[in-house]
């Protein structure tokens, strides 16, 4: 369930006029920007961008970039873009992050988005950056991590709930053999995770746990410095329970020394129109603290106010 609160039929012309007014005079009226953009869905935001450009012969995205700064500018920029374009930008930033790519973003989008959603993101990526997503991932990664991430980004996977029961058992047994051999980087592991439907993978992992008395994820924590194992663990968790995965991302981002604003921004802007309310509930059950309270404590100023608006709190 989404958290975003928005009116049914706002006027994009009136919104464009109000935003233009917010840019004029001495200093930017950030509160006015938040009151509008923090309460408009993706379709409404697109109409505002078009109305603003038609009325003022100016790109609203570029104007916002010039008016704002810091984490507030980042969150507004990611929010005002069309969702597919925003996700393409997030992927590109993650791939080119130094000293090594942020595999979490690639894994999240490729495992949690349904095939149509992810295909739209890949098209937006290619249109914006003039490279395929797979090409850029391959260029900036190596070894087993490259095989896993390119594999996750490549196929158009079956999204239905049907599964092959015989395959569930045989592939669970195959995984057990590979765990015994300490060969979790074997091509068969990568094949199963990158080509099977999420329903098939969940059934296989559940059968593995039931048959062998422990979850396969236990064996992925033996070497925290191994990016491949960490990415594989993230993929399994994302496939098994996306909302629980996002709760953990937020929990780590909010509790680590030096708040990880990029991770907070990514989760809030990508899930506010989807399932952020479910993530909020899991966060509260796990931490005994409301997510909006935690964000209020660890962030500040207009950035905090905009995040709270997307969380359904003003």
Automatic annotation (TrEMBL):
Binding locations of Ca(2+) 1: 23, 25, 27, 67, 256, 258, 299
Keywords (A to Z) from UniProt: Annexin, Calcium, Calcium/phospholipid-binding, Metal-binding, Repeat
Keyword Repeat included in the entry's annotation: yes
Molecular function per GO: calcium ion binding; calcium-dependent phospholipid binding; phosphatidylserine binding
Biological process according to GO: response to cold; response to heat; response to salt stress; response to water deprivation
Residues the entry annotates as binding Ca(2+) 3: 298
Cellular component annotations (GO), alphabetically ordered: cytoplasm; plasma membrane
Domain notes from UniProt: A pair of annexin repeats may form one binding site for calcium and phospholipid.
Family label: Belongs to the annexin family.
Name of the protein in question: Annexin
